Amino acid sequence: MLRYTLMRLGIFAGCLVVVWGLVYSGVAPRGLGDSNGMWIVMLALLVSAPISFVVLRKERDRASVQIVERVDRVKSSLEANRNQEDEAVDAVADGTPRTRSQPSQTS
């Protein structure tokens, strides 16, 4: 995921330099008044988004697979904890002796 993010930032930085050069050389239009810096950043974002979408497709797919695997691991861990808790509650309700994982109840 970090690799994908750094690659996106690299593409944006490259586009920012190119757009800045085009604006200050007069090829691309300048922003109105004091908005020239914002204009350059927005134009660089607009140019870098489709480039990133096409160029980083494989890296984005790898990152999404890692995220899905992480989410699945967390879900299975939560489900295992939930089942363990349900078993402990059922055991207390049935009157079976407590195990170490069950909290002691004092009155």
Describe this structure in words.
The protein is mainly α and 107 residues long. The protein folds into two domains: 1-55, no CATH class; 57-93. Helix content is 77%, strand content 0%. The chain is built from three helices and no strands. Helix 1 crosses helix 2 (36-55). The chain is elongated, with a radius of gyration of 27 Å. The two termini are 51 Å apart. The mean pLDDT is 84.
Chain-wise SSE layout:
Elements (H helix, E strand, L loop, with lengths): L1 H24 L10 H20 L1 H38 L13
| Helix-residue proportion | over 70%
Largest sheet: none
Counting DSSP E segments of at least 2 residues, the number of strands comes to: 0
Number of helices: 3
Computed CA radius of gyration, to the nearest angstrom: 27 Å
Strand content: under 5%
Count of folded domains: 2
The computed structural class is: mainly alpha
Overall pLDDT metric: 84
Element order, helices and strands?
Answer: HHH
- Oligomer state equals single chain
Uncertain segments of ≥5 residues (pLDDT<50)? none
What's the end-to-end separation, in Å?
51 Å
Shape: elongated
Write a compact overview of the structure shown.
This protein has 107 residues and is an all-alpha fold. The protein contains 3 helices and no strands.
Structure keywords:
107 residues, mainly alpha, 2 domains, elongated
